[in-house]
Amino acid sequence: MPESLPADSVGLVQPQSLQFDQPLELDCGRVLPEYELVYETYGTPNADRSNAILVCHALSGDHHAAGYNSMEDRKPGWWEACIGPGKPLDTNRFFIVSVNNLGSCKGSSGPNTINPETGRYWGPDFPIVTVRDWVHSHARLADALGIDQWAAVVGGSLGGMQVMQWAIDYPDRLRHAVIIAGAPRLSAQNIAFNEVARQAIMSDPEFHEGYYLEHDTVPRHGLMLARMLGHITYLSDEAMRAKFGRELRTDQINFGYDVDFQVESYLRYQGQSFVDRFDANTYLLMTRALDYFDPAAEHDDDLAAALAPVTARSLVISFTSDWRFSPERSREIVKALLDGNKSVAYAEVQAHQGHDAFLMPIAQYMAVFRAYMDEVAAELEEGA
Amino acid sequence: MTSAIDRRPDLAIISRWIREGARILDLGCGDGTLLGHLRSSKGAGGYGIEIDDANVIACIRQGLSVIQSDLDAGLNEFDAGSFDYVILSQTLQAVRYPDRLLEEMMRVGQEGIVTFPNMGYWRYRLRLALTGRMPVSSAAAAPGEWYNTPNIHLCTLADFEALCEDMGIEILEMTAVNSAHRSNPFMRTWPNTLGEIALYRFRRR
Questions:
Q1: Full-model pTM
Q2: Is the distance from CB of A273 to CB of A105 less than 8 angstroms?
Q3: Alpha carbon of A331 to those of A55, A97, A132, A180, B71: distances in Å?
Q4: Which among A122, A305, B77, B157 could disulfide-bond with B192, CB atoms 3.0 to 4.6 Å apart, if both were Cys?
Q5: Subunit contact A347:B82, Cβ cutoff 8 A
Q6: Degrees (nearest 5) of the Cα angle A281, A282, A285?
Q7: Chain A residue with minimum CA distance to B56
Q8: In chain A, which ranges are E strands?
Q9: Which residues of chain A register pLDDT less than 50?
Q10: ipTM over 0.95
């Protein structure tokens, strides 16, 4: 609990929600007849809302990107490092919208909300949505909020994929695309990790083909395993060594299979606490959305052709120790933008934190991000 | 106050060599002075490659397309013939394989432009002849003693032209200037002795 709110925090925020009654046609061929999107906003819109920025979240993220929902919150939003007064996404200058994706378990329509047609939990019957579906639903949120064109659409990891899709599908509706620790598509290795995570969930006896809520249970063990695996891939070898080494929990090994090493204790804790705040069907769905994202596929695997409609200027950032979404993957995006003669800046930040680096206030990362957003803000002032 | 381009007159010479609206790749673009100048004076679009963190930020602050990358890793991300000019300003002497980089410049660009400190400059010759000590170039972007200078591949105009000959590179234009980046008739007559900094524009023969 924060005893007092830090000065560079957006402070107390409340989520809002909007109900959409216009059916949403999905990539999978199904239609969501109606849905709800939950979002938070930070900062103040200017008269023509040209200072609006959309923040897209990653796999286990949500709309609560900054500040605190109550004084009892132990931690601020997931991107507190970047959003707030004086931070790269400066709430003194920008109006920031952070939306929870469809299929999530954090408020927007998803597997753990009620299917209005049946009056029961959607559960595994919630359609598998794609990055493109999300972006289409975000565009309707922008319409509802009176935002014609975002100053920037910003996101890390899976969020970065949404930024790319935004720039492809709605080129006129964003001036800048900020793609952090992203990738133009997952590698086989990445899909493989996702598959193991899904198998862990689906092979849990409490999974019940996804209808676990109707059995008053959750596949705790499977979801925990999935998160433990994911967590390993978000950290680098170096970061784990620095954080845990081979440190023991007690001062000796116990010749058993309970927790001996600190790293085991940490992973179990991460896995268990994740189960309390996340839904297994959502985990399946989000990993599938990651697997399916591949804008180049419709263009004979030519990413430059896929990005041809892009008019936004782009900033691409990667982190040296990120092996889940490695710098090479970001460079594929940069190359494709460059081949299309698009404006793009690329920073490869030295960081030992692995994929998780995009959530952290690393000095060079913050400096690059701030420098770029200063330019975005300067354009706004020129325009006004 | 002088502008950055006034402090680097070699950049003014380069910019005279570049035609309007050209597509440029600036290798080792530093804080983006040249790219920014070419954008405003020539309407030239282009990309800079830079490895230094602070320089990358300086470029981003100007809204330039900068790509953080190591030149020694090559230019294989760039397609053949994708730029009108590939510029290497005060960097040739600091890369591990200058010949390979020149080859890459020829592949990626229609024309190449390089500038480097001329080790044939008479003061350097004199220092080596009289004191037996290696010259320390004040004209190079980052001077230093032989053991700590980033300038690991020093050459003279004659050396560079011999390499061009070997590599089938046609020199289109050459200018030699002093450390204030001025030229004079003597320098034009004896560039390898009187010129401190060499500037070349070239293409594949």
A1: 0.94
A2: no
A3: 22, 28, 22, 11, 15
A4: B157
A5: no
A6: 90
A7: A347
A8: 16-20, 24-25, 31-32, 35-42, 52-56, 83-84, 89-90, 95-99, 114-115, 120-121, 152-156, 176-180, 313-319, 344-349
A9: none
A10: no
Sign of CA dihedral A38, A44, A141, A101: negative
pLDDT of B11 reads 82
pLDDT band at B142; cut points 50, 70, 90 = low
In this structure, which amino acid lies at residue B116? F
A313 in contact with chain B, both atoms CB, cutoff 8 A: yes
Q: Is A355 a catalytic residue?
A: yes
Active-site residue (options: A314, A322, A326, A330): A322
Give the amino acid at A319: F
Closest CA to A287 of A202, A379, A353: A202
Task: Measure the CA–CA gap between A92 and B120, rounded to whole angstroms.
Answer: 57
Tell me how far apart the alpha carbons of residues A381 and B180 are, in angstroms, rounded to a whole number.
39
Q: Is A374 on the interface with B (CB under 8 A)?
A: yes
C-beta of residue B192 within 8 angstroms of C-beta of residue B120: yes
Q: Which residue of B has its CA nearest to A350?
A: B53
**Helix, strand, coil share of chain B (percent; to 5):** 40, 25, 35
A19: tokens are 């109900």
What separation in angstroms does the CA of B161 have from each of A172, A226, B157?
50, 62, 6
